[in-house]
C-alpha cells in the first residue's frame, strides 16, 4: 500500500515538474547562443532543448547580422521537438510578436513609430518597424510626389500608423503625416514673421505650368506665372530654374489655409502707368504678335504691354478669314493705337489702319466713267462681282449688263473666271462699294432712236409684221407693237389685215419709257388728237356743221 502511494506521488510530482519546466509551444522564450555554424546560430533555450536559427533573422534590413556566442536572445518556440530531436525556433517571429505588442500600444495612443523603408512593392514600399513589416503607400511617402525614393531606403525615420489588423497581419503607415505635422508647425512660425508687401529672398523649389513654388525658409509660396513679369510668360521656365535664388514680394497671405502668394513683377515699374504717354491714340508702332485667337491677335508693344487687333481691324478686304491666315506668331507688324483703357489694362489696335483704304485708292485712280478690266469672281442672282486691284470687288448689277436684253437673260452669257470690261459708275468709300456697268461701254440705241421724241409727238413708223392681236412697227431701229384696239378710232377699222408689211403709218407717241426701253405708239390716239384739233380750229359740231364738213375744211386747210 505504501509502495503504491509512493509511486502515485512520484508520478504526480514528475508530471507537475514537466508541466512547469517545459515551455508552451507558440510562446516567446529566452535562449543563449552556444555556437554559430553553417550560417546558423545554435541556441540553448533550456529545458535540455536546443534549436537552430538562420543568422539573417538577426539582421535589420540592409544590415549585417549582429550576433555572437554567449548572447542572450528571445526566440519564438514553434515546436518542442522536430524529427531530429531539436526545438523549432524563430528569432523573426519573436521580434514580430514583440513588435506587434509595441505597435498596438503606439497605434492606440497615436504615437509615432520608428522604421526603415527596405523594399518596393506595387503601389508603394515595405517598411520594417523593428520586426513587423508595414505597407507605405506611394501617396504617403511625401507631401509631393517623389520621383526617386532611393535616398530614403534603409534610413531610420518616424512613421505614423494609419491602420493595423493583427489577425490579418496588415499595417499601413504614413511618412507624409509626420512631414505635414512638422511642416505645419514650421509654416505657422515662418508665416507669423511675414507681412503682405514684404520683400524676401527664396529658392525656386519646383516649377509647374501655372507657376513656381519658392521656399522661403521652411514654407513654400506660390509665384504664379502671371506675377512673374509684366509681359506675357508662356511657361515659368522661360524666367526661372529650379534651385535659383530669387527676390520676391509677399502679395497675399491666407492665415486660415497658410497659403502664400508671391510676385516678382511687383518689384518692377508698371509699364501701364505710362502707356498713354508712350502710345497716344492714332500713333503707329511696331509690335510682335504673341498670340492668335479666333477673334483677333495680341501684339506686344513693349514688355508688359499688349494690345488686341480685333479680326475686324486686320484687313480692309479679308472679312471672314481666321486671323492666323493674316498674321503669324512672332511676326513683327505695324499697328495703329485705336483706343486705350488703362483701368482695364486694354489697348485696341488696328492693322488695316496702317495701310491705305483700297477704296480710296481706287476712287483716286479710277474716276467715274473710267474703264476697268477684271475677272468675274462670283455670279449671284442680282449681278456679277468683278475682281479689281488690291483685292477689292466691283459689282455689275443685272440692269447694267445689256441695253437690249433682260438682266436675267444677259447674265446667262457669263461664267466665273471670264475677263470682262466695264465702266465705273459709282464709288462709295464709306460703304466700300464700287458699281460697274458693262452696257455703258456701248451706245444706248434706245436713247439715240428716241432722241427728241416726246409723249404726244406724231412720228412715222414702218409696218414690219402683221399679227392677230395687232401690228409690229419700227422707228429708227426701235420696234413697237400697236394693239388691235389702237389701230383705229372706229371699231370697224381696227383690223390688222388692212395693213401690209412695209406700209408707212403716222402714229402718236403715248409713252417713252427709258427703263423698260419701250416706245408706246397708237394710231387711234393720233386720230382722236387730230379730230380734237380740227374741231377747235374749224368750228364746233354744236354750230350745225357736220363732222365731215369740219374734217373736209381741215383737209383743205392742209392743202
Give a brief outline of the structure.
By secondary structure, this protein is an alpha+beta fold. The protein has helices at 2-21, 91-108, 176-192, 275-278, 358-365, 407-410, 445-449, 523-538, 547-558, and strands spanning 27-37, 40-46, 49-54, 72-79, 88-90, 113-121, 124-128, 133-137, 156-165, 170-174, 199-207, 211-215, 220-224, 245-254, 259-263, 284-293, 296-302, 305-310, 332-341, 346-350, 371-380, 383-387, 393-397, 419-428, 433-437, 458-467, 470-475, 478-483, 504-513, 518-522.
Features:
single chain, alpha+beta, OB fold (Dihydrolipoamide Acetyltransferase, E2P), 6 domains, 5-stranded antiparallel β-sheet
What structural class should be given to the helix and strand makeup?
alpha+beta
Q: State the low-pLDDT regions, or none.
A: none
Q: Report the CATH topology name of the largest domain.
A: OB fold (Dihydrolipoamide Acetyltransferase, E2P)
By CATH's scheme, which homologous superfamily of the largest domain applies? Nucleic acid-binding proteins
- Please bin the fraction of helical residues: 10-25%
Major beta sheet, strand line-up: 3-2-1-4-5
How would you characterize the largest beta sheet?
5 strands, antiparallel
Protein name: 30S ribosomal protein S1
Keywords: Repeat, Ribonucleoprotein, Ribosomal protein, RNA-binding
InterPro entries: NA-bd_OB-fold, Ribos_protein_bS1-like, Ribosomal_bS1, Ribosomal_protein_S1-like, S1_domain
Function: Binds mRNA; thus facilitating recognition of the initiation point. It is needed to translate mRNA with a short Shine-Dalgarno (SD) purine-rich sequence.
Amino acid at each position: 500500500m505504501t509502495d503504491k502511494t509512493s509511486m502515485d506521488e512520484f508520478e504526480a510530482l514528475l508530471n507537475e515538474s514537466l508541466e512547469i519546466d517545459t515551455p508552451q509551444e507558440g510562446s516567446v522564450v529566452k535562449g543563449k547562443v552556444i555556437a554559430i555554424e553553417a550560417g546558423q546560430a545554435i541556441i540553448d533555450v533550456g529545458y535540455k532543448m536546443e534549436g537552430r536559427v538562420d543568422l539573417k533573422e538577426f539582421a535589420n534590413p540592409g544590415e549585417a547580422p549582429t550576433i555572437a556566442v554567449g548572447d542572450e536572445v528571445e526566440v519564438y518556440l514553434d515546436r518542442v521537438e522536430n524529427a531530429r530531436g531539436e526545438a523549432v525556433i524563430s528569432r523573426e517571429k519573436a521580434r514580430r510578436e514583440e513588435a506587434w505588442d509595441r505597435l498596438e500600444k503606439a497605434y492606440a495612443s497615436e504615437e509615432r513609430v520608428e522604421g526603415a523603408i527596405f523594399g518596393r512593392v506595387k503601389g508603394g514600399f515595405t517598411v520594417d518597424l523593428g520586426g513587423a513589416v508595414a505597407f507605405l503607400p506611394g501617396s504617403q511617402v511625401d507631401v509631393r510626389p517623389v520621383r526617386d525614393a532611393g535616398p530614403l531606403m534603409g534610413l531610420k525615420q518616424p512613421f505614423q500608423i494609419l491602420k493595423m489588423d493583427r489577425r490579418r497581419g496588415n499595417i499601413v503607415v504614413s511618412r507624409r503625416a509626420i512631414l505635414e505635422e512638422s511642416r505645419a508647425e514650421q509654416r505657422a512660425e515662418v508665416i507669423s514673421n511675414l507681412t503682405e508687401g514684404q520683400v524676401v529672398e527664396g529658392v525656386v523649389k519646383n516649377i509647374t505650368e501655372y507657376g513656381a513654388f519658392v521656399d522661403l525658409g521652411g514654407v513654400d509660396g506660390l509665384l504664379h506665372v502671371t506675377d512673374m513679369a509684366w509681359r506675357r510668360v508662356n511657361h515659368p521656365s522661360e524666367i526661372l530654374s529650379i534651385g535659383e535664388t530669387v527676390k520676391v514680394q509677399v502679395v497675399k497671405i491666407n492665415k486660415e489655409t497658410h497659403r502664400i502668394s508671391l510676385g516678382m513683377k511687383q518689384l518692377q515699374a508698371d509699364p501701364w502707368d505710362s502707356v498713354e504717354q508712350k502710345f497716344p491714340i492714332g500713333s503707329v508702332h511696331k509690335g510682335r504678335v504673341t498670340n492668335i485667337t479666333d477673334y483677333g491677335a495680341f501684339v506686344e508693344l513693349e514688355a508688359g504691354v499688349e494690345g488686341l487687333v480685333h479680326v475686324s481691324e486686320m484687313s480692309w478686304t479679308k472679312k471672314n478669314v481666321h486671323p492666323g491666315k493674316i498674321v503669324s506668331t512672332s511676326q513683327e507688324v505695324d499697328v495703329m493705337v485705336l483706343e486705350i483703357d488703362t483701368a482695364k489694362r486694354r489697348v485696341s489696335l488696328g492693322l488695316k489702319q496702317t495701310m491705305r483704304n483700297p477704296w480710296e485708292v481706287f476712287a483716286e485712280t479710277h474716276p467715274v466713267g473710267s474703264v476697268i478690266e477684271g475677272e468675274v469672281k462670283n455670279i449671284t442672282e442680282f449681278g456679277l462681282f468683278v475682281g479689281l486691284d488690291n483685292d477689292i470687288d466691283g459689282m455689275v448689277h443685272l440692269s447694267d449688263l445689256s441695253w437690249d436684253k433682260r438682266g436675267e437673260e444677259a447674265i446667262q452669257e457669263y461664267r466665273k473666271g471670264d475677263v470682262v470690261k466695264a465702266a465705273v459708275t459709282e464709288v462709295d468709300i464709306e460703304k466700300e462699294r464700287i458699281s460697274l456697268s458693262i452696257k455703258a461701254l456701248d451706245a444706248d440705241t434706245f436713247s439715240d432712236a428716241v432722241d427728241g421724241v416726246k409723249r404726244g409727238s406724231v412720228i412715222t413708223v414702218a409696218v414690219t409684221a402683221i399679227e392677230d392681236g395687232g401690228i409690229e412697227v419700227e422707228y429708227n431701229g426701235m420696234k413697237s407693237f400697236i394693239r388691235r384696239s389702237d389701230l383705229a378710232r372706229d371699231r370697224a377699222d381696227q383690223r390688222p389685215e388692212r395693213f401690209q408689211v412695209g406700209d408707212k403709218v403716222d402714229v402718236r407717241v403715248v409713252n417713252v419709257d427709258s427703263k423698260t426701253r419701250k416706245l408706246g405708239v397708237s394710231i387711234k390716239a393720233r386720230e382722236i388728237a387730230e379730230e380734237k384739233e380740227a374741231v377747235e380750229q374749224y368750228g364746233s359740231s354744236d354750230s350745225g356743221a357736220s363732222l365731215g364738213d369740219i374734217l373736209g375744211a381741215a383737209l383743205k386747210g392742209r392743202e
